[in-house]
Amino acid sequence: MDIRTPVFLVDEELIRKNCEILASLKQRTGCKILLALKGFAMWPLFPLVHEYLDGVCASSSWEARLGREEFGGEVHAYAAAYSDQNFQELLTLCDEIDFNSFTQLERFYPHMNDSVKFGLRINPECSTQSSGHEIYDPCAPRSRLGIRKQDFSGQKLDRISGLHFHTLCEQNADALKITLEAVEQQFGEFLHQMEWVNFGGGHHITRSDYDIDLLCKLINDFKTKYGVQVILEPGEAVALNAGTLVASVLDITNNEGNIAILDISCPCHMPDVLEMPYRPEITGAGQPNEKAHTYRLSGLSCLAGDVIGDYSFDVPLKIGDQLVFKDMAHYTMVKTTFFNGVEHPSIAIKRGNKIEVMREFTYEDYKGRLS
Fold first, then answer.
1. What integer pLDDT is reported at residue 251 of this predicted model?
2. 0.85 exceeded by the pTM?
3. Burial of 187 by CB count in 10 Å (0-12 exposed, 13-18 middle, 19+ buried)?
4. pLDDT, position 2
5. Is residue 258 within 8 Å of residue 291, measured between CB atoms?
6. Over the stretch 295-312, which tens digit does the pLDDT of each residue have?
7. If you placed Cys at 248, which of 5, 38, 314, 350 could pair as Cys (CB 3.0 to 4.6 Å)?
8. In the chain, which stretches have pLDDT less than 50?
């Protein structure tokens, strides 16, 4: 691939294919689907995504503003807490705002108006996450996200038109089925009062083995039973397998095994590799010792743990070789940093056989963040 690295490269056609799957879900169920900006906020592609989805969901006034200015459609917001300034800004940007607690609802009750709908995030206390995923589990013990059933006692819901739960992470429809059973068991008495229920994100709808038929049944049955509008807010599903991070080998050293230093960095450019943690796939690479030549791939920063993982290749790596990391469009660009002054990858779009570089970052971008 003849392209300057490092670069995030997103394939427009693959984004469209994901959106077409989501649009078919809308057609079969009548649900609304919002793009979760926390996962994918590459706004030059918003016009394409807006052809298929209803709007965006935001977790801050900046995300909401980006959605209002560049996406259009509906703008929904949820955050663990709002400041006075945040809330006033969101009132001018959003169609719907969800609260995380009754104390926040009480605090902002005097400022609520009829031009915005308001909801509550609930915690059904039903974890479907696998072990080791606690950092992404909103139903983990002592979670700060969502209101438990016991906290509804004695509370007024006169300005609340919907409920919102988000319990999944990269999961199939069977996990949603379990969650819905818990939601109905704990919050069923309130559901008939609501206009809408937001099933949140974490639905891996565009994954090849996702059970869309089950998802459709769950949505349609829920709508029929409670007479509500169902909302989904995927982020990852919009950009799943639609982008790559292309890096180059800068140096090769040896310390009880070959080590390749790349022009990217885990904490700077793909922090989930360390946070989850997980091992990203690379085109043409295998597990350690699966192929003839094994290397520990590591990043450019001075963090000792800036290590991507061990990979094997059919032929020896050499300085200047380019490596293509798969599935790097979501939860990467939205989480990057300028730690250590490491050069930020360019952002590019692949349209057919052409690549258009949308943004290249400079020293001034790094300097401008610091004062």
1. 99
2. yes
3. buried
4. 75
5. no
6. 999 999 999 999 999 999
7. 5
8. none
Q: How many Å apart are CA 232 and CA 128, to the nearest integer?
A: 18
Which residues, at least 6 apart from 289, have a Cβ–Cβ distance to it below 8 Å?
Answer: 312
Distance between CA atoms of residues 154 and 124, nearest Å:
18
What is residue 1's predicted lDDT score, i.e. its pLDDT?
Answer: 65
Residue 149 phi, psi dihedral angles, 5° rounding: -55, -40
Beta strand 162-164 with 196-198 is: parallel
Q: What is the DSSP letter of 327?
A: S
CA gyration radius, the chain: 22
CA angle centred on 122, ends 72 and 233, rounded to 5°: 30
Alpha carbon 316 to chain centroid distance? 35
Question: What pLDDT, on a 0 to 100 scale, did the predictor assign at position 130?
Answer: 79
CB 270 within 8 A of CB 224: no
Instruction: Dig out the tokens for 281 from the structure.
Output: 């796939």
Any long-range contacts for 111-119 (C-beta under 8 Å, 24+ apart)?
Answer: 111/87, 112/159, 115/91, 116/91, 117/161, 117/162, 117/195, 117/196, 118/159, 118/160, 118/161, 118/162, 119/160, 119/161, 119/162, 119/163, 119/164, 119/196, 119/198
Say what the pLDDT of residue 341 is: 98
Neighbours of 190 (CB within 10 A): 17
Q: Which pair of structure tokens corresponds to residue 178?
A: 């379990």
Reply yes or no on domain 13-239 having CATH 3.20.20.10: yes
Cβ–Cβ < 8 Å for 239, 328: no
Side chain identity at residue 242, one-letter code: A
Annotated domain spans of the chain: 13-239, 243-328+336-368
Distance between CA 264 and CA 307 in Å, rounded?
Answer: 10
**CB-based contacts of 137: which residues, under 8 Å, 6+ apart?**
127, 129, 143, 167, 169
> How many C-alpha atoms does 318 have within 13 Å on its Cβ side?
1
DSSP 246-302: EEEEEEEEESSSEEEEES--HHHH-THHHHTT----BTT-BSTTTSSEEEEEE-SSS
